[in-house]
Amino acid sequence: MPQSSVLKELESRLSRDFTYGSGRIIGSMCTCPHPLARKVYTCFLDRNLGDSGLSPALVKLEKETIHILGALLSNPKASGHIVTGGTEANTLALWAAKKLSKKNQSEVIVPASAHYSFDKAADLLSLQIVKVGLNSRFQVDVEAVEKAVNSNTIAIVGVAGTTGLGVVDPISELSEIAVKKDLYLHVDAAFGGFVLPFLKELGFSVPDFDFSLPGVCSIAIDPHKMGLAPIPAGGILFQNERLRKTVAWNVSYLAGGESEQATIVGTRSGASVIAVWALLKHLGTEGYKRIVRSCMRLTWKLAVEIQKINGLDIITEPTMNIVGIKSEVFDIRRIAKELRLRKWAVSLFPNHIRIVVMPHVQKQHVEEFLEDLKDIVTELGG
Ligand SMILES: Cc1ncc(COP(=O)(O)O)c(C=O)c1O
Protein backbone atom coordinates (compact mmCIF):
# COMPACT_ATOMS: atom_id res chain seq x y z
CA MET A 1 0.00 0.00 0.00
CA PRO A 2 1.30 3.51 -0.69
CA GLN A 3 2.00 5.56 2.45
CA SER A 4 -0.90 7.89 1.70
CA SER A 5 -3.36 4.96 1.60
CA VAL A 6 -1.98 3.52 4.84
CA LEU A 7 -2.40 6.88 6.55
CA LYS A 8 -5.91 7.31 5.15
CA GLU A 9 -6.98 3.85 6.28
CA LEU A 10 -5.54 4.39 9.74
CA GLU A 11 -7.28 7.73 10.05
CA SER A 12 -10.65 6.32 9.07
CA ARG A 13 -10.31 3.10 11.12
CA LEU A 14 -9.11 4.77 14.33
CA SER A 15 -11.14 7.97 14.22
CA ARG A 16 -14.11 6.49 16.04
CA ASP A 17 -12.07 5.40 19.07
CA PHE A 18 -12.21 7.45 22.25
CA THR A 19 -9.59 10.20 22.59
CA TYR A 20 -8.50 12.06 25.71
CA GLY A 21 -8.79 15.34 23.85
CA SER A 22 -12.55 14.87 23.44
CA GLY A 23 -13.03 15.04 27.21
CA ARG A 24 -15.25 11.91 27.10
CA ILE A 25 -12.68 9.69 28.86
CA ILE A 26 -13.45 10.38 32.49
CA GLY A 27 -12.61 6.99 33.94
CA SER A 28 -8.93 6.66 33.04
CA MET A 29 -5.72 7.51 34.88
CA CYS A 30 -3.94 8.51 31.68
CA THR A 31 -4.25 11.79 29.79
CA CYS A 32 -3.10 13.74 26.72
CA PRO A 33 0.67 13.90 26.83
CA HIS A 34 2.08 17.41 27.27
CA PRO A 35 3.07 18.98 23.88
CA LEU A 36 6.73 19.26 24.89
CA ALA A 37 6.81 15.57 25.81
CA ARG A 38 5.27 14.64 22.44
CA LYS A 39 7.90 16.70 20.67
CA VAL A 40 10.97 15.29 22.40
CA TYR A 41 9.53 11.75 22.36
CA THR A 42 9.26 11.74 18.56
CA CYS A 43 12.75 13.30 18.20
CA PHE A 44 14.43 10.43 20.05
CA LEU A 45 12.37 7.39 19.07
CA ASP A 46 15.45 5.35 18.19
CA ARG A 47 17.08 5.51 21.64
CA ASN A 48 17.33 2.15 23.43
CA LEU A 49 18.21 2.09 27.10
CA GLY A 50 18.37 -1.71 27.01
CA ASP A 51 21.77 -1.29 25.34
CA SER A 52 22.93 1.44 27.65
CA GLY A 53 26.56 1.45 26.50
CA LEU A 54 25.36 3.08 23.27
CA SER A 55 23.97 6.06 25.13
CA PRO A 56 26.04 7.10 28.15
CA ALA A 57 24.52 10.60 28.00
CA LEU A 58 21.04 9.09 28.15
CA VAL A 59 22.03 6.92 31.10
CA LYS A 60 23.05 10.14 32.87
CA LEU A 61 19.71 11.71 31.93
CA GLU A 62 17.84 8.76 33.44
CA LYS A 63 19.89 9.06 36.64
CA GLU A 64 18.99 12.76 36.80
CA THR A 65 15.32 11.91 36.23
CA ILE A 66 15.37 9.40 39.08
CA HIS A 67 17.22 11.91 41.25
CA ILE A 68 14.47 14.53 40.67
CA LEU A 69 11.72 11.98 41.36
CA GLY A 70 13.65 10.80 44.42
CA ALA A 71 13.87 14.37 45.73
CA LEU A 72 10.10 14.71 45.18
CA LEU A 73 9.71 11.58 47.33
CA SER A 74 12.10 12.76 50.09
CA ASN A 75 15.15 10.82 48.96
CA PRO A 76 17.44 12.33 46.30
CA LYS A 77 19.67 9.27 46.74
CA ALA A 78 16.97 6.87 45.53
CA SER A 79 17.99 4.56 42.73
CA GLY A 80 15.77 3.19 39.99
CA HIS A 81 14.44 3.37 36.47
CA ILE A 82 11.77 4.69 34.19
CA VAL A 83 9.84 1.55 33.26
CA THR A 84 6.76 0.65 31.24
CA GLY A 85 4.23 1.53 33.93
CA GLY A 86 2.90 0.73 37.38
CA THR A 87 2.62 -2.97 36.62
CA GLU A 88 6.33 -3.30 35.83
CA ALA A 89 7.25 -1.10 38.81
CA ASN A 90 5.18 -3.19 41.23
CA THR A 91 6.52 -6.42 39.75
CA LEU A 92 10.12 -5.22 40.15
CA ALA A 93 9.41 -4.36 43.79
CA LEU A 94 8.05 -7.84 44.55
CA TRP A 95 10.93 -9.36 42.64
CA ALA A 96 13.42 -7.44 44.79
CA ALA A 97 11.55 -8.49 47.93
CA LYS A 98 11.66 -12.12 46.82
CA LYS A 99 15.39 -11.95 46.09
CA LEU A 100 16.01 -10.60 49.59
CA SER A 101 13.83 -13.17 51.32
CA LYS A 102 14.83 -16.47 52.85
CA LYS A 103 14.22 -19.75 51.06
CA ASN A 104 10.56 -20.88 51.06
CA GLN A 105 9.23 -17.55 52.30
CA SER A 106 6.54 -16.43 49.87
CA GLU A 107 3.75 -14.26 51.32
CA VAL A 108 3.10 -10.65 50.37
CA ILE A 109 0.52 -8.71 52.38
CA VAL A 110 -1.47 -6.24 50.28
CA PRO A 111 -4.57 -4.15 50.98
CA ALA A 112 -7.81 -5.45 49.45
CA SER A 113 -7.76 -2.20 47.45
CA ALA A 114 -4.37 -2.93 45.81
CA HIS A 115 -4.09 -2.87 42.02
CA TYR A 116 -4.41 -6.25 40.26
CA SER A 117 -0.80 -5.92 39.08
CA PHE A 118 0.22 -7.41 42.43
CA ASP A 119 -1.80 -10.55 41.64
CA LYS A 120 -0.08 -10.76 38.26
CA ALA A 121 3.36 -10.21 39.79
CA ALA A 122 2.74 -12.82 42.48
CA ASP A 123 1.63 -15.33 39.87
CA LEU A 124 4.77 -14.72 37.80
CA LEU A 125 7.07 -14.88 40.82
CA SER A 126 5.31 -17.82 42.54
CA LEU A 127 4.44 -15.68 45.55
CA GLN A 128 1.23 -15.77 47.59
CA ILE A 129 -0.83 -12.64 47.96
CA VAL A 130 -2.51 -12.18 51.33
CA LYS A 131 -5.29 -9.61 51.02
CA VAL A 132 -6.13 -7.58 54.09
CA GLY A 133 -9.45 -5.77 54.59
CA LEU A 134 -10.02 -2.01 54.78
CA ASN A 135 -11.20 0.29 57.56
CA SER A 136 -14.25 2.56 57.32
CA ARG A 137 -12.14 5.13 55.42
CA PHE A 138 -11.18 2.57 52.76
CA GLN A 139 -7.60 2.40 54.01
CA VAL A 140 -5.87 -0.86 54.81
CA ASP A 141 -6.65 -2.09 58.34
CA VAL A 142 -3.23 -1.78 59.99
CA GLU A 143 -4.05 -4.14 62.88
CA ALA A 144 -5.10 -6.78 60.37
CA VAL A 145 -1.81 -6.28 58.52
CA GLU A 146 0.12 -6.82 61.74
CA LYS A 147 -1.89 -9.96 62.47
CA ALA A 148 -1.29 -11.29 58.95
CA VAL A 149 2.52 -11.09 59.33
CA ASN A 150 4.09 -14.50 59.95
CA SER A 151 7.42 -16.26 59.40
CA ASN A 152 6.49 -16.77 55.75
CA THR A 153 5.95 -13.05 55.03
CA ILE A 154 8.42 -11.32 52.73
CA ALA A 155 6.79 -7.96 52.08
CA ILE A 156 4.03 -5.52 52.85
CA VAL A 157 2.45 -3.26 50.25
CA GLY A 158 0.78 0.08 50.97
CA VAL A 159 -1.02 2.21 48.41
CA ALA A 160 -0.73 5.99 48.19
CA GLY A 161 -3.64 6.70 45.89
CA THR A 162 -5.77 3.59 45.43
CA THR A 163 -6.98 2.70 41.97
CA GLY A 164 -10.64 2.78 42.93
CA LEU A 165 -10.87 5.84 45.18
CA GLY A 166 -7.48 7.57 45.41
CA VAL A 167 -7.24 6.80 49.12
CA VAL A 168 -3.86 6.83 50.92
CA ASP A 169 -3.13 3.93 53.27
CA PRO A 170 -1.56 4.69 56.70
CA ILE A 171 1.94 4.21 55.30
CA SER A 172 3.68 5.51 58.44
CA GLU A 173 2.08 2.73 60.49
CA LEU A 174 2.97 0.17 57.83
CA SER A 175 6.53 1.51 57.97
CA GLU A 176 6.64 0.92 61.72
CA ILE A 177 5.52 -2.68 61.24
CA ALA A 178 8.06 -3.18 58.44
CA VAL A 179 10.90 -1.84 60.57
CA LYS A 180 9.83 -3.82 63.64
CA LYS A 181 9.47 -7.10 61.74
CA ASP A 182 12.32 -6.48 59.30
CA LEU A 183 10.09 -6.70 56.23
CA TYR A 184 10.27 -5.13 52.79
CA LEU A 185 7.71 -2.32 52.38
CA HIS A 186 6.70 -1.23 48.90
CA VAL A 187 4.48 1.82 48.35
CA ASP A 188 2.37 1.90 45.23
CA ALA A 189 2.16 5.61 44.43
CA ALA A 190 1.73 4.95 40.71
CA PHE A 191 -1.10 7.49 40.69
CA GLY A 192 -0.56 9.47 43.90
CA GLY A 193 3.16 10.06 43.37
CA PHE A 194 2.47 12.92 40.99
CA VAL A 195 -0.40 14.29 43.12
CA LEU A 196 0.43 14.09 46.84
CA PRO A 197 3.72 16.07 46.86
CA PHE A 198 2.00 18.92 45.00
CA LEU A 199 -1.10 18.84 47.21
CA LYS A 200 1.31 19.23 50.13
CA GLU A 201 2.99 22.18 48.41
CA LEU A 202 -0.47 23.69 47.93
CA GLY A 203 -0.93 23.63 51.70
CA PHE A 204 -3.14 20.55 52.11
CA SER A 205 -2.46 18.15 54.90
CA VAL A 206 -0.87 15.12 53.28
CA PRO A 207 0.16 12.12 55.37
CA ASP A 208 3.74 10.86 55.09
CA PHE A 209 3.88 8.19 52.43
CA ASP A 210 7.37 8.30 50.93
CA PHE A 211 11.05 7.71 51.73
CA SER A 212 10.79 10.09 54.68
CA LEU A 213 9.55 6.93 56.43
CA PRO A 214 12.39 4.57 57.38
CA GLY A 215 10.61 1.35 56.40
CA VAL A 216 9.85 2.30 52.80
CA CYS A 217 12.10 0.22 50.51
CA SER A 218 10.61 1.12 47.13
CA ILE A 219 7.99 3.33 45.51
CA ALA A 220 6.12 3.08 42.21
CA ILE A 221 5.42 6.49 40.65
CA ASP A 222 4.04 6.73 37.12
CA PRO A 223 4.84 9.70 34.89
CA HIS A 224 2.29 8.42 32.34
CA LYS A 225 -0.54 9.08 34.80
CA MET A 226 -0.55 12.52 36.49
CA GLY A 227 2.97 13.26 35.18
CA LEU A 228 1.55 13.96 31.67
CA ALA A 229 4.20 11.82 29.99
CA PRO A 230 3.52 9.75 26.87
CA ILE A 231 2.77 6.05 27.43
CA PRO A 232 4.86 4.07 28.40
CA ALA A 233 6.40 5.77 31.42
CA GLY A 234 6.30 4.25 34.87
CA GLY A 235 8.83 4.72 37.63
CA ILE A 236 10.39 2.37 40.17
CA LEU A 237 12.48 3.97 42.87
CA PHE A 238 14.43 1.92 45.39
CA GLN A 239 15.54 3.42 48.68
CA ASN A 240 19.19 2.82 47.72
CA GLU A 241 21.44 1.39 45.05
CA ARG A 242 21.87 -1.89 46.94
CA LEU A 243 18.15 -2.63 46.63
CA ARG A 244 18.11 -1.76 42.91
CA LYS A 245 21.04 -4.13 42.39
CA THR A 246 18.97 -7.07 43.65
CA VAL A 247 17.14 -7.11 40.29
CA ALA A 248 20.12 -6.20 38.09
CA TRP A 249 21.56 -8.48 35.41
CA ASN A 250 24.80 -8.13 33.53
CA VAL A 251 24.57 -8.57 29.77
CA SER A 252 27.85 -9.09 27.97
CA TYR A 253 27.17 -9.26 24.22
CA LEU A 254 25.50 -5.94 23.50
CA ALA A 255 26.65 -3.49 20.79
CA GLY A 256 27.46 -0.87 23.38
CA GLY A 257 29.59 -3.31 25.35
CA GLU A 258 28.82 -5.02 28.63
CA SER A 259 25.85 -3.45 30.35
CA GLU A 260 23.51 -3.88 33.26
CA GLN A 261 19.72 -4.13 33.14
CA ALA A 262 17.53 -3.81 36.23
CA THR A 263 14.18 -3.78 34.47
CA ILE A 264 11.92 -6.61 33.33
CA VAL A 265 12.13 -5.67 29.67
CA GLY A 266 15.44 -5.66 27.80
CA THR A 267 15.12 -3.22 24.93
CA ARG A 268 13.39 -0.18 26.37
CA SER A 269 12.38 3.27 25.32
CA GLY A 270 14.97 5.99 25.79
CA ALA A 271 12.39 8.43 24.38
CA SER A 272 10.19 7.80 27.43
CA VAL A 273 13.01 8.79 29.77
CA ILE A 274 13.82 11.88 27.72
CA ALA A 275 10.16 12.94 27.72
CA VAL A 276 9.90 12.55 31.51
CA TRP A 277 13.15 14.47 32.07
CA ALA A 278 11.91 17.27 29.78
CA LEU A 279 8.60 17.54 31.65
CA LEU A 280 10.23 17.58 35.07
CA LYS A 281 12.54 20.37 33.91
CA HIS A 282 9.85 22.35 32.10
CA LEU A 283 6.84 22.03 34.42
CA GLY A 284 8.77 21.73 37.67
CA THR A 285 7.04 22.02 41.01
CA GLU A 286 5.12 25.16 39.99
CA GLY A 287 3.77 23.58 36.81
CA TYR A 288 2.62 20.37 38.48
CA LYS A 289 1.13 22.35 41.38
CA ARG A 290 -0.97 24.31 38.88
CA ILE A 291 -2.15 21.13 37.18
CA VAL A 292 -3.05 19.41 40.46
CA ARG A 293 -4.84 22.53 41.75
CA SER A 294 -6.98 22.77 38.65
CA CYS A 295 -7.87 19.04 38.68
CA MET A 296 -8.78 19.24 42.38
CA ARG A 297 -11.05 22.28 41.91
CA LEU A 298 -13.05 20.39 39.30
CA THR A 299 -13.04 17.25 41.42
CA TRP A 300 -14.62 19.09 44.37
CA LYS A 301 -17.19 20.70 42.09
CA LEU A 302 -18.09 17.28 40.71
CA ALA A 303 -18.31 15.74 44.19
CA VAL A 304 -20.61 18.54 45.45
CA GLU A 305 -22.91 18.35 42.43
CA ILE A 306 -23.22 14.57 42.58
CA GLN A 307 -24.42 14.79 46.17
CA LYS A 308 -27.23 17.10 45.03
CA ILE A 309 -28.63 14.44 42.68
CA ASN A 310 -31.45 12.46 44.28
CA GLY A 311 -30.48 8.85 44.84
CA LEU A 312 -26.75 9.36 44.21
CA ASP A 313 -23.90 9.90 46.62
CA ILE A 314 -20.12 9.85 46.73
CA ILE A 315 -18.35 6.95 48.41
CA THR A 316 -15.95 9.18 50.34
CA GLU A 317 -14.58 12.74 50.26
CA PRO A 318 -11.98 12.84 47.48
CA THR A 319 -8.35 12.78 48.67
CA MET A 320 -7.11 13.34 45.16
CA ASN A 321 -8.74 13.82 41.76
CA ILE A 322 -10.86 10.68 41.92
CA VAL A 323 -14.57 10.53 42.77
CA GLY A 324 -16.51 7.34 43.53
CA ILE A 325 -20.25 7.55 42.73
CA LYS A 326 -22.58 5.16 44.52
CA SER A 327 -26.31 4.71 44.91
CA GLU A 328 -28.54 3.06 47.50
CA VAL A 329 -31.50 3.46 45.16
CA PHE A 330 -30.33 2.66 41.63
CA ASP A 331 -28.29 -0.15 40.18
CA ILE A 332 -24.90 1.48 39.64
CA ARG A 333 -24.18 -0.92 36.76
CA ARG A 334 -27.28 0.31 34.97
CA ILE A 335 -26.16 3.92 35.38
CA ALA A 336 -22.70 3.06 34.04
CA LYS A 337 -24.32 1.30 31.07
CA GLU A 338 -26.48 4.35 30.29
CA LEU A 339 -23.47 6.67 30.60
CA ARG A 340 -21.53 4.47 28.19
CA LEU A 341 -24.45 4.57 25.74
CA ARG A 342 -24.07 8.35 25.90
CA LYS A 343 -20.39 7.92 25.02
CA TRP A 344 -18.89 8.59 28.44
CA ALA A 345 -15.90 6.33 29.10
CA VAL A 346 -16.47 5.73 32.81
CA SER A 347 -14.84 3.11 34.98
CA LEU A 348 -16.97 0.62 36.90
CA PHE A 349 -15.99 -0.97 40.22
CA PRO A 350 -18.17 -3.50 42.11
CA ASN A 351 -19.99 -0.83 44.12
CA HIS A 352 -19.22 2.41 42.39
CA ILE A 353 -18.51 4.35 39.23
CA ARG A 354 -15.05 5.89 39.28
CA ILE A 355 -14.48 9.30 37.76
CA VAL A 356 -10.88 10.44 37.37
CA VAL A 357 -10.61 14.18 36.75
CA MET A 358 -7.42 14.15 34.70
CA PRO A 359 -5.93 17.32 33.17
CA HIS A 360 -7.77 16.76 29.85
CA VAL A 361 -11.13 16.91 31.68
CA GLN A 362 -12.35 20.51 31.57
CA LYS A 363 -15.19 22.38 33.32
CA GLN A 364 -17.43 22.06 30.29
CA HIS A 365 -16.96 18.25 30.22
CA VAL A 366 -17.85 17.99 33.91
CA GLU A 367 -20.98 20.09 33.32
CA GLU A 368 -22.05 18.00 30.31
CA PHE A 369 -21.42 14.83 32.29
CA LEU A 370 -23.54 16.06 35.21
CA GLU A 371 -26.40 16.94 32.83
CA ASP A 372 -26.34 13.43 31.37
CA LEU A 373 -26.12 11.89 34.83
CA LYS A 374 -29.17 13.87 36.01
CA ASP A 375 -31.10 12.85 32.86
CA ILE A 376 -30.30 9.18 33.41
CA VAL A 377 -31.39 9.31 37.05
CA THR A 378 -34.65 11.02 36.03
CA GLU A 379 -35.25 8.35 33.37
CA LEU A 380 -34.67 5.65 35.98
CA GLY A 381 -37.39 7.24 38.11
CA GLY A 382 -35.32 9.40 40.47
C1 LIG B 1 -2.39 2.31 42.06
C2 LIG B 1 -2.00 1.70 40.74
N1 LIG B 1 -0.91 0.94 40.67
C3 LIG B 1 -0.52 0.38 39.52
C4 LIG B 1 -1.24 0.55 38.37
C5 LIG B 1 -0.80 -0.12 37.09
O1 LIG B 1 -0.29 0.82 36.21
P1 LIG B 1 -0.07 0.48 34.67
O2 LIG B 1 -1.44 0.30 34.08
O3 LIG B 1 0.67 1.68 34.19
O4 LIG B 1 0.73 -0.76 34.57
C6 LIG B 1 -2.40 1.32 38.40
C7 LIG B 1 -3.19 1.53 37.19
O5 LIG B 1 -4.19 2.16 37.16
C8 LIG B 1 -2.81 1.91 39.63
O6 LIG B 1 -3.93 2.63 39.75
What does the model show?
The protein is of the alpha/beta class and 382 residues long. The chain folds into two domains: 3-33 and 285-379, Aspartate Aminotransferase, domain 1, CATH 3.90.1150.10; 36-282, Aspartate Aminotransferase, domain 2 (3-Layer(aba) Sandwich). The protein is built from twelve helices and 13 strands. The chain has helices at residues 3-14, 35-43, 56-72, 86-100, 117-125, 142-148, 171-181, 196-201, 241-245, 270-307, 332-341, 363-379; strands at residues 79-83, 107-111, 128-132, 153-159, 184-188, 216-220, 234-238, 249-251, 259-261, 313-314, 322-326, 347-348, 353-356. Strands 1-7-6-5-4-2-3 form a seven-stranded mixed beta sheet, with helices on both faces. The protein has a four-stranded antiparallel beta sheet with strand order 10-11-13-12. The longest helix is centred in the C-terminal third of the chain and has 38 residues, at 270-307. The radius of gyration is 21 Å and the shape is globular. It binds pyridoxal-5'-phosphate. The site of pyridoxal-5'-phosphate has 15 residues, from helix 4.
